[in-house]
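Notes from the pairing session

We agreed to fold both candidates in a single pass and log them together. This is the raw record for the first candidate, unedited. Please don't reformat it; downstream parsing expects exactly this layout.

Candidate A
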Amino acid sequence: MQTQTNTAGGRNRIATVWLMVSTVLVGLMAGLFFAFDVSVMPGLARGDERTYVTAMQNFNAVIDGNGLFGTVFVMALLAAVASAVLEYRKGRRGVAVWVGAAAALYLVMLVITFTVNIPLNNELADAGDAAKLTDFSIVEKFKGTWVTTNIIRTLLCTAALTALARALVQYGRAAAR
């Protein structure tokens, strides 16, 4: 069974698929973070602390228990790395550099997520039932740090998506030769 099918211009279907998959997955993550930046978090900030804690605990529980989210979250990096390796091996160094840059940007986002956002989410979960909370000091710390790092995650994913778009342009040019 042939796993790599060459098409016109030296393109490779598997390389094409990985490049497209990584672009779509990173785009989905950029969109998720952006939606939190421009609607979810500002909307929650308009309410009271109890509502804020309840909503964030619920969002985090849904995301933690959602296999589709986890798959997209992890596969975005794996697809970008696979694409960069395939492009490099096919001799399309320009494409590989852009995809590699996207993977690096996405990796930085993952590091921020695992070192800042997830620990904050866990602290909020550990606070317990929002209906029984009397000390809401955790909310101000959470809001300031979580919102700021989410903006950074949005920017990193958007930059990664931009790099992948550039890789697609480079890929198209290489295929046209």
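Candidate B (folded immediately after A)
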Amino acid sequence: MAIRAILTDIEGTTTDIYFVHKTLFPYAAKHLPDYVRANLQEPAVQQILDDARQEIGQPDADADTLIDAFLGWIEADKKVTALKALQGLIWANGYQQGDFTGHLYHDAITYLQGWHEQGFKLYVFSSGSVKAQKLLFGYSDAGDITGLFSGYFDTTTGHKREQASYEAIADAIALPAAEVLFLSDVEEELDAARAAGMQTTLLARDDEPESSAHPVVSSFDEIEL
């Protein structure tokens, strides 16, 4: 079936995984304690803290306890929705202050722009929050490219290794799953997308796997629609 939409992962797919792990995560960890303490009265931060209290099962946890929990989740690379939302707020400051720009592989931006011009609908599905996704693409190495995308999805839709998440995305964009191509560097995510009926391609930028159930490419240049 012909592809009408492309759903892409970010980390390791459009963006060097080291940008996330060596720039964004350390920046959030460094600034998180001061940011939380300085913004305790902000409604968005209050909601995030309430979500974190629920996550750790301590409805009366104070700010210091929650800060420790957030830092622990960062250290363990946990995909906790409250953490992702808080990181997005902190990264917004960093992007706006020019502390860094969002890394994009040259082949990724070239082909995303080309596919958009050809009429393909482009969507993003990442474990990072929608806010963080829009910041990365809004303050990218290539400038603001958020206009290329028709929608963004994060863990509020579901986990990336679960079939139901991809079924929900297909419903949200009102297309048969078979007309959607999902791009990722993680086999288990692609397995879930394929189980939902999507077409799939594995981005293996550094080390090509010995075998895969999915088409394998080393860059966007090799993707056949």
